[in-house]
Specification:
By secondary structure, the protein is of the alpha/beta class. It has 6 helices and 7 strands. It has one domain: P-loop containing nucleotide triphosphate hydrolases (Rossmann fold). The structure holds guanosine-5'-diphosphate (GDP).
């Protein structure tokens, strides 16, 4: 059975000091508000309302943790880039998300959800520049691909791969539709593989300190 289908909500954290203790490998989901991130998480876990599909984008400023059995955790970051969010909320986002991303030893992989019709916005690029040097596995998920024709989908995928290659040599790009479920099984398999690899790398360390896990990450990326 897929680890993703066992996902259970564990915690919702609004303050970087209240993050869960380090544990199994984590895959983090980030993306602009309204890009379809909650729907993608629901589709990948096979739940209708595991991640709340927001009606007021940009308001939820929490990091949500979901346990995937022993395989790992799924971590949902608050959306970004909603034009009408006040400056104070943006500062809160920077502190909360920056605090998580910069210090999390358990973090193994990042999924950047982008609208397949408008990928690589300036804010997506800013986050990519930030994520690339962390040595994580990186997946760009081109969401709402049901809105593209077949030929547009092929073009979006190859353009996405070209654009991502400017930031990291071994990132992955996939199309996803939470509506038709195109790409869902494939993405789930890829992420489970990454989590299992990270879990094995962590087990191979006798006393896994942060430095050890960081070295493991670099080695993974040299494959
Ligand atoms: P989030 O703010 O990134 O979590 O985005 P949501 O998951 O709440 O989705 C925002 C809007 O896009 C909602 O109206 C969804 O119904 C719609 N949406 C999400 N995923 C898809 C998709 O794969 N295809 C289509 N056509 N619409 C989608």
């Amino acid at each position: 059975m897929s680890a993703f289908s066992q996902a259970t909500f564990t915690a919702s954290v609004g303050n970087p000091d209240q993050l869960l203790a380090e544990g199994p490998p984590e895959v983090v989901f980030a993306g602009r508000s309204n890009v379809g991130k909650s729907s993608a998480i629901n589709a990948l876990t096979g739940r209708r309302r595991l991640a709340f599909v927001s009606k007021t984008p940009g308001r939820t400023q929490t990091i949500n943790f979901y346990d995937l059995g022993a395989t790992g955790r799924l971590v949902d970051l608050p959306g970004y880039g909603y034009a009408r969010v006040p400056r104070a909320v943006r500062t809160q986002w920077d502190q909360l998300v920056g605090g998580y991303l910069s210090r999390r030893a358990s973090l193994a992989a990042a999924v950047l959800v982008m609208d397949a019709r408008h990928p690589f916005t300036p804010q997506d690029v800013a986050l990519l520049k930030w994520l690339a040097p962390l040595g994580l596995r990186l997946l760009v998920l081109l969401s709402k691909c049901d809105k593209l024709s077949r030929s547009q989908r092929v073009a979006a995928l190859s353009a996405g791969r070209r654009q991502l290659a400017a930031f990291t040599p071994d990132g992955e790009v996939r199309l996803l539709s939470s509506l038709t479920h195109e790409g869902v099984a494939e993405v789930r398999t890829l992420l489970e593989e990454w989590l299992r690899d990270a879990g094995r790398a962590a087990e191979n360390k006798k006393a896994p300190g942060k430095g050890d896990i960081n070295r493991g990450r670099k080695r993974l990326n040299q494959n």
